[in-house]
DNA sequence: ATGTAGGCCTGGAAGC
DNA sequence: TGCTTCCAGGCCTACA
């Protein structure tokens, strides 16, 4: 579900509630999400101060003063609900427990963070902070798309010789970490690249053009998340999704937004996932 | 090694 | 209205 910009928005929304605060109670309502929770998770969280809240790809990491870090993945349908805290100018009372509330953290401030995930594709784990990068879910990840290690020469080298469609290559978290179906569709549209073209067959110039475009697409979405964060806080304290205007994603049958382009946005299926594209603009 | 389908779960929307 | 089918923004595993 949430891709990098949404996860970053959730991280920013949780930061004032979690960072520097102590978890006074951890309620764990089931033994697992996608995978089993770590042994004694509730005990290992209770009493811990959260020193920092970080993001790697689509994962959130909460560093605890025990020397462990809590890894949080929202999967496709994971949401965080903040209650009992002043959010902007509004105070949110604690809601009644809801279906799919799997983990509830109560903080020393009285604030509460509830992890709700209907589809249970999300996950949580605990590991030593100084070995977090070696966690199986993080070890194979490629560079952060907004970081310095993601640059033109890197992407050109990484896609060289790859026979897979560029759409699939950009969804490969080992190539670049944090892109999902939406932002890959949007980036390929802005770059004017046909999503079915083989990654290795693209010119170096074309591949290079993707780097600033990917940065731009994600950056704009994070900005939009920032403004919707205020709205969400004012509305209901829920963090997870935000409204954003897409140029091709989920616009099947609608006209291409490129001025003067007669194209109609199409939907094709690539490795089981929907790809939205303009058959005229994207070559 | 590389590329692609299948499966995990539930809920909402669309179709009949 | 109610039942059925399809679809979903992720990611791992198994297989060609």
UniProtKB/TrEMBL annotation:
Record's catalysed reaction(s): 2'-deoxyribonucleotide-(2'-deoxyribose 5'-phosphate)-2'-deoxyribonucleotide-DNA = a 3'-end 2'-deoxyribonucleotide-(2,3-dehydro-2,3-deoxyribose 5'-phosphate)-DNA + a 5'-end 5'-phospho-2'-deoxyribonucleoside-DNA + H(+); Hydrolysis of DNA containing ring-opened 7-methylguanine residues, releasing 2,6-diamino-4-hydroxy-5-(N-methyl)formamidopyrimidine
Protein origin, superkingdom: Bacteria
Needed cofactors, names only, are: Zn(2+)
Return the EC number: 3.2.2.23, 4.2.99.18
* MF terms (GO), sorted A to Z: 8-oxo-7,8-dihydroguanine DNA N-glycosylase activity; class I DNA-(apurinic or apyrimidinic site) endonuclease activity; damaged DNA binding; zinc ion binding
Q: Locate the FPG-type domain: which residues?
A: 247-283
Record CDD domains: EcFpg-like_N
**Residues holding DNA:** 100, 119, 162
GO BP annotations listed: base-excision repair
The role this protein plays is:
Involved in base excision repair of DNA damaged by oxidation or by mutagenic agents. Acts as DNA glycosylase that recognizes and removes damaged bases. Has a preference for oxidized purines, such as 7,8-dihydro-8-oxoguanine (8-oxoG). Has AP (apurinic/apyrimidinic) lyase activity and introduces nicks in the DNA strand. Cleaves the DNA backbone by beta-delta elimination to generate a single-strand break at the site of the removed base with both 3'- and 5'-phosphates.
Provide the family line: Belongs to the FPG family.
Listed under subunit, the entry gives: Monomer.
Q: What is this protein called?
A: Formamidopyrimidine-DNA glycosylase
Record the organism: Cereibacter changlensis JA139
Point out the gene that encodes the protein: mutM
């Amino acid at each position: 579900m949430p891709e990098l910009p949404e996860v970053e928005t959730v991280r920013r929304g949780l930061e004032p509630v979690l960072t520097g605060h102590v978890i006074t109670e951890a309620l764990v309502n089931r033994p697992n999400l996608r995978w089993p929770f770590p042994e004694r998770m509730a005990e290992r969280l209770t009493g811990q101060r959260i020193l920092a809240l970080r993001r790697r790809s689509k994962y959130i990491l909460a560093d605890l003063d025990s020397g462990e870090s809590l890894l949080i993945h929202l999967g496709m349908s994971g949401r965080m609900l903040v209650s009992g805290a002043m959010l902007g100018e509004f105070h949110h009372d604690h809601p009644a427990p809801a279906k799919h509330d799997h983990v509830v953290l109560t903080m020393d401030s009285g604030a509460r963070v509830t992890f709700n995930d209907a589809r249970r594709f999300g996950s949580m784990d605990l590991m030593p902070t100084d070995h977090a990068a070696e966690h199986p879910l993080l070890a194979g990840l490629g560079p952060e798309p907004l970081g310095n290690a993601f640059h033109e020469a890197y992407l050109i080298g990484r896609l060289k010789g790859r026979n897979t469609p560029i759409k699939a290559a950009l969804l490969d978290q080992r190539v670049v970490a944090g892109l999902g179906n939406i932002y890959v569709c949007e980036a390929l549209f802005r770059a004017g690249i046909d999503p079915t073209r083989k990654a290795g067959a693209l010119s170096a110039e074309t591949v290079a053009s993707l780097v600033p475009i990917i940065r731009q697409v994600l950056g704009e979405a994070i900005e939009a998340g920032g403004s919707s964060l205020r709205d969400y806080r004012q509305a209901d304290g829920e963090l997870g999704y935000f409204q954003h205007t897409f140029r091709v994603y989920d616009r099947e049958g609608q006209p291409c937004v490129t001025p003067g382009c007669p194209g109609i946005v199409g939907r094709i299926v690539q490795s089981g996932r929907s790809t939205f594209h303009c058959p005229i603009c994207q070559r």
